[in-house]
Specification:
This protein is 43% helix and 16% strand. The protein is α/β, with parallel strands linked by helices. It has two domains: 220 residues, Rossmann fold (3-Layer(aba) Sandwich), CATH 3.40.50.1480; 154 residues, 3-Layer(aba) Sandwich (Rossmann fold). β7, α9 and β8 form a beta-alpha-beta unit. The radius of gyration is 22 Å and the shape is globular. It starts with 9 loop residues before the first helix and ends with a helix. Bound molecules: nicotinamide-adenine-dinucleotide and S-adenosyl-L-homocysteine.
């Protein structure tokens, strides 16, 4: 039985899911192509992904393709209660609510795993991690999994390297049609949507410090520049740092950037990016937020111990005042600002990411007999199919090689 907070919110959630559906044309084609075949008939899927409207629509599609769905969120602050209510009202098994405690969060992950899934769809690796720990006894039912994000794939690679990963997991994040668009343009837009709606402050003319110039950082920096900010990038990888410099950004260590920034956005997937070393250097009024997977990029323990007082400045903004009178403001408790204080990536972006998810889950179901435990790449055909469907949906067409060109290229 579902465990959600406010069933009466279902009609609001239903409207959000319908809006997502209208803006997810690629997933709709995949649904139409496979509806009759029901590739997931008799298959149980446990899913732990930010539980908002686009995710809900993915769950609906998987259910229409035959799957028995058991759904939870992947972050205590990103679940939208109206969406969870709508999914549960539609008959899916849903365990999540916004603001759940760490114990409730784990209870919800456990509940979807206790349904004995054959496929697990993870965002960050929490389901896989429980299955390899306290819930090992459920492993025999699991054929494999799909992982949505960079940090989750890193965790899986570490498990595969030490020989502990017990089943195949498809690295959805590493598909081109995922990270090229989702991590870069999705995060680029939704992080600024989250910051802007939370702060209601101007970006133009400010100095924005972006920590990490990977896929997410590139998008965040690009859109900051678009808003008219001066952009500073911090990195630990010399090649990425050089790329940032050649893209026209200032590059420096955080110890130098700390005194320069008006707004800081971390997107490294690392810990302790902004710490006690940096807080004393911040300008009065500096705004700090995170776009990376875990809430460890801004060291909140350091901040809390350095601050002499703290207060709620605005919804999802907490002010921390230091002994010298300066105040720093942290958005969404240092959790991913685009999801904890926004609706996450736009529907058209999640359309591609979740189409890769749906096709990867189908691939897993079809090939389960031959796939070995480990981290598996998304087959190239899936990437190309999603790209072609997206081009088609956008009314774009491309050239095809002639026979003469193929011969010239030796194909
Ligand atoms: P990536 O590996 O492409 O980029 C991370 C970058 O950070 C790398 O260039 C790395 O060199 C740099 N870095 C690492 N430690 C650093 C440090 N201490 N200081 C400065 N730079 C450092 O990864 P990505 O795909 O950009 O993802 C980054 C994080 O964002 C991951 O945790 C990922 O799970 C998460 N993510 C969030 C969203 C979202 O919606 N907010 C979307 C996709 C990914
Ligand atoms: N489990 C992590 C989440 C990592 S967030 C946590 O601690 O919260 C990064 C992932 O969120 C990305 O890979 C992206 O695909 C996904 N995401 C972004 N916007 C989303 C949305 N609107 N709905 C569902 N997932 C979204």
């Amino acid at each position: 039985m579902s465990d959600i907070k406010t069933p009466a919110l279902a009609p609001d959630g239903e409207r959000k899911i319908d809006w997502a559906r209208r803006n997810m044309p690629v997933l709709n084609v995949i649904l139409a192509e496979n509806r009759a075949v029901k590739p997931f008939a008799g298959v149980k899927i446990a899913l732990s992904v930010h539980l908002e409207a686009k995710t809900a629509y993915l769950c609906r599609v998987l259910a229409e393709l035959g799957a028995e769905m058991h759904v939870t969120g992947c972050n205590p602050l990103s679940t939208q209660d109206d969406v969870a209510a709508a999914l549960a009202a539609g008959g899916l098994d849903v365990h999540a609510h916004r603001g759940e405690t760490p114990e409730e969060y784990t209870r919800h992950l456990t509940a979807v795993l206790e349904a004995r899934p054959n496929i697990v769809i993870d965002d960050g690796g929490d389901l896989v991690s429980l299955l390899h720990g306290k819930l090992r006894h459920l492993l025999p039912d699991v054929w494999g999994g799909c992982e949505e994000t960079t940090t989750g794939v890193h965790r899986l690679r570490a498990m595969a390297a030490d020989g502990s990963l017990a089943f195949p997991v498809i690295a959805v994040n590493d598909a081109d049609c995922k990270h090229l668009f989702d991590n870069r343009y999705g995060t680029g837009q939704s992080v600024w949507d989250g910051i802007n709606r939370t702060t209601n402050l101007i970006v133009a003319g400010k100095t924005v410090v972006v920590a990490g110039y990977g896929w997410c950082g590139r998008g965040i920096a690009l859109r900051a520049r678009g808003f008219g900010a001066r952009v500073v990038v911090t990195e630990i990888d010399p090649v990425k740092a050089l790329e940032a410099a050649m893209d026209g950004y200032d590059v420096m260590p955080m110890s130098a950037a700390a005194a320069r920034g008006d707004v800081f956005v971390t997107a490294t997937g690392c810990a302790d990016v902004i710490t006690a070393e940096h807080f004393p250097l911040l300008r009065d009024g500096a705004v700090l937020c995170n776009a990376g997977h875990f809430n460890v990029e801004i060291n909140m323990t350091d901040l809390e111990s350095l601050a002499v007082s703290s207060f709620d400045a605005r919804q999802n903004i907490k002010g921390y005042t230091f002994a010298d009178g300066r105040t720093a403001f942290v958005l969404a408790e240092g959790r991913l600002v685009n999801l904890a204080s926004g609706d996450g990536h736009p529907a058209e972006i999640m359309d591609m990411s979740f189409s890769i998810q749906a096709l990867s889950a189908m691939y897993l179901a079809e090939n389960r007999a031959s796939l070995k435990p480990g981290v598996i790449a998304v087959p190239r055909e899936i990437d190309e199919k999603v790209a072609r469907l997206k081009l088609q949906a956008d009314g774009l067409s491309i050239d095809a090689l002639t026979d003469k060109q193929k011969a010239y290229l030796g194909l």
